[in-house]
Amino acid sequence: MKKFLSVALVAAMSLSLVACGGSSSGETEAAAETEAAAAAEEGGEAASGEKGKIAYIVGNLGDKSFSDSGEAGMNVLREEGWEVYTVETGDASKADKYEDYILDVLDQGYQYIVGSSTYMEIFARLAPDYPDVKFIGFDENWADEDLPENMTCIFYAQNEGSYLVGMLAAAMSETGVVGVDVGVENPVINDFVTGYINGVMDWNAANGTDVKVVKAACGSWTDPATMKSLVLDQIRNNNGDVFYQVAGGSGDGLFEACVEQGKWAIGVDSDQYAAYIDSENPEKAEVILTSMLKEVGNSFISLFHDIEAGDDSMWGHTIRLGLAEDSVGYVDNEFYQTNVPEEIRTAIEDAKAKIAAGELTVKSYYDFADDTEFNTYVQDAG
Q1: By CB neighbour count within 10 A (0-12 exposed, 13-18 middle, 19+ buried), where does 304 fall?
Q2: N or C terminus of the chain: which is more exposed, having fewer CB within 10 Å?
Q3: Higher-confidence residue: 205 or 19?
Q4: pLDDT greater at residue 367 or residue 60
Q5: 10-157+296-324 falls under which CATH superfamily?
Q6: Which residues, at least 6 apart from 137, have a Cβ–Cβ distance to it below 8 Å?
Q7: CA–CA separation, 17 and 302 (whole Å)
Q8: For the chain, which residues make up each domain, given as ranges?
């Protein structure tokens, strides 16, 4: 498989963020069965479908993050002639409906079913019954032997990108305390946390500092109020001053807290400065030093370009994408350059090059023997 090269998604992302305010989970539940049929019969948001039919299964659009990045990639594929239908399944409270939504698009003849780790177990269970359909899970690290032969898994090295923003947080902190605040804890999210802490610790070791890391989880991808409360607590009680959000839609609450208290924030998955600067709340952009990028949309584009070219090497295998494949990284925009001193930017760029070249290995959650070992790592950082 060739490297997944970065593709310019600015125009597509703009379309996605304007058009995808996100339908409510109530609307999704009520209309799911008829929407799939309507999409197949009327084309929905799809192009002609001359290249094939893709169903993108997602919780909710409008998160200015992970889900919207994937939708931006799907928008590019639509423009290229793929028929793409996006199904919003709602949050975890609708989990008992997830399989029904997937069965709906299978019944409508969609040839490629794409969904995050949330849907992986369902994909693996259904795949043997639909041998002519290809299932694409992403954001999960499955062993090849656990994948059906008509399924692939895209795993992003989020620990590598998180390492770089961990360095940034430690370097920019004036109080000596930085935060990492997540939505729902799971192995992938723990990998973000592990890489971030590793970046902070290595910055300490190289610069003689003693920056501590505090961590919290709000328990939801769609609860900005709880996230805001957690971050305010970390500011008031722990004296934190730089905060990394890995929380989907809940991350908006972290930005609100940082605006109110005059603290720095770091976004995730997409360029969240760009997402907010032209929004109704541009003040949130002014606290986002950078965002750790997970190029979900780019990975979709590259994968389907490979499929179109006749490459079938991905089926039955997990594909790992990191800095070496330009699939994770961070935003280096004018705001970042203005607010981050040159010597810090240079150190981060040097670390990025070393990781991509294999000269520096970032610690991963998957290195730990168990969660007890991971939790000890987090506690030691604080």
Answers
A1: buried
A2: C
A3: 205
A4: 367
A5: Response regulator (3.40.50.2300)
A6: 115, 116, 117, 119, 120, 123, 151, 152, 153, 154
A7: 21
A8: 10-157+296-324, 158-293+328-381
Quote the tokens at residue 213: 């890391």
**Residue 270 CA from chain centroid, whole number:** 7
Q: Which two tokens stand for residue 232?
A: 């305010």
Q: Which residues pair with 57 in a beta bridge?
A: 87, 115
CATH 3.40.50.2300 is the classification of domain 158-293+328-381: yes
| 10-157+296-324 matches 158-293+328-381 in fold | yes
Q: Are 67 and 125 in contact (CB under 8 A)?
A: no
Angle among Cα 79, 82, 83 to the nearest 5 degrees reads: 105
d(CA 382, CA 169): 14
pLDDT value of residue 128: 97
pLDDT digits 0-9 by tens, 63-90: 777 788 889 999 999 999 999 999 999 8
